[in-house]
Amino acid sequence: MTATGSSDRVILSETPFLTSEGEQEMRPRSELGPDELLREVGSVLRMSEAEVAALAQRVVEPSEDQTMIINMGPQHPSTHGVLRLMLELQGETVLRCKPIVGYLHTGMEKTGEQLTYLQGPTNVTRMDYASPLSNELVFSMATEKLLGIDGDIPERAVWIRMLMVEINRMASHLLFLATNGMDIGAVSMMIYGWREREIVLRFLQKVTGLRMNHNYIRPGGVAADMPPGWRDDVLELIDIITPRLVEYDTLMTDQPIWRERLQGVGVLTAQEALALGATGPILRSTGVAWDLRRDMPYLRYDEIEFDVLVGSYGDCFDRYAIRLNEVRESMRIVRQILDRMPKGDYRIQDKKVTPPPRGRINESMEALIHHFKIFTEGFKVPEGEAYVGIEGPRGEIGCYIVSDGSARPYRMHIRPPSFVNLQTLPHMMRGGLIADGVAVISSVDPILGEVDR
Amino acid sequence: MTVADPVASPPDAPTDDAEAAAAESAPSPVLVHGCATSDSGGQLVVHPTREQYLDLLRHLLDDGYVQCLDVFGVDYLLHPGRTLPDGIAPERFEVVLLLINHSARTRLRVRVQVPVADPTLPSLFTLWPGTEAPERETYDMFGVEFTGHPDLTRILMPEDWVGHPLRKDFDVGAIPVQFSEGHTAPPKRPA
Fold this sequence. Notes:
By secondary structure, chain A is mainly alpha-helical. In chain A, 48% of the residues lie in helices and 11% in strands.
């Protein structure tokens, strides 16, 4: 973390209780008592203080020499980046857990206020770097809503967007399968997962030019049409991934060791998940069938058949199984998109938003000026505010934009699914073992770039 | 809905009576639990006053808005003239909540005005515990304090940071670039 505007920054190391690590520290149990427990469990489960006090007595004898507070992370391979967990341990058992974030904070929302709407996707795509196309899509949709052109996006652009987002969802879930395997000890799964993800990324690279951080979905449509032969590439991709998923089932799903490690670990109830704002596979694993693609359809998801997968136990195994099978659902969606991909434009022919085609620039002075204006000043967006939420691989990713009528967002906020989902960690880790804690972190599938933004 | 002029309207929040009267005189007032509303691209937006805020949200939770997806702020320092329903005076800060009702499949947005002189709001932790981290982020980025929040500390910025970076009067910083010859380019600041 770099101090920008260093004159504003004062080191308060002289102040008592303010160490260099700051106030976020987990306090010793003796200082807290049932209050902390009420906060951690009681509020979520709507328990009374008396009930919480009763629970507190059952859990542990607060004895100083029996428990210890340790840091897990921020530099820990299984914290998926720079997540720091403060754990209060009694032997191997986790009594309390407090996630501490912010190590990757780079002020991307502030940066978003300095960039034009055309440059915006380059910024938001770097937030959730495992599913960059969802970020670009939600930013573009919010901008289009402000521009009032959300109904005028050409059909082909809409279907290309759907195709790309679903393929990106496959890549994201394959990454989860890889890291989940690695965290739990199925190290060869890591290699397999990365290998399959790389195949998917190769397709994305062919279409967008980049493996990640594509800047492909832009306000008004997409940056380029699908390349020649893309249909065969997609079919080949599906043909490769389908049998590999069967291999994963053999390697992991059917393995007694794998099941032992995940079943009944990190259980979350539907009540807890809803209260904590969890979305995506975490919410679905508790049995709440909520998927924005089905329940509040955007793009053309209402014209496509797919199943919303739900779990019944809310444990790590359910979350694993949901993501594994969502790869299959995504392939099912992709096959339908292949059949229905319409012909036409890949971006809106609105002179305000879309730069003139390359050929025109060489012939026409006006086209050159127009191109120059769009890329230097950007296009003005009418005053107002808009929120759009879509189903990303990790849950509801949303974008809220306030426009003051200029070419830059006055305020751009991304509703980060991982950031909110992380709040479920203390509940899932409570009373479990440290080794299970690793499985729990993995099953939340946080992307720290998006948590901290 | 009219464009609220910050100069013409008094800076203080109007009383409930004044707001109720304004709402009654409006042609087709849509009130949600007595709070003014507006429509933003097909989404219902509720504009409670700070006094109505907690009551409104209690009612909304009972109405089935079981999830509060996010809490975040907007600093309207440089963009004071914006569309608000009658009776809602614009203030510098605005806190926005995103609520979702799964059974009715509806979304609802709550926008509450928070004056810079007294940037406080009641915490929603007891209603939706999932607002804990987003409220901390709003405090960190805008300095809006949530009373009753169990752990109102900075979440993204370092603990010893001074100022709230997403406020519009907080400068965008720049790191001096060092070149190989030893001289340093001055940091560029946007105008």
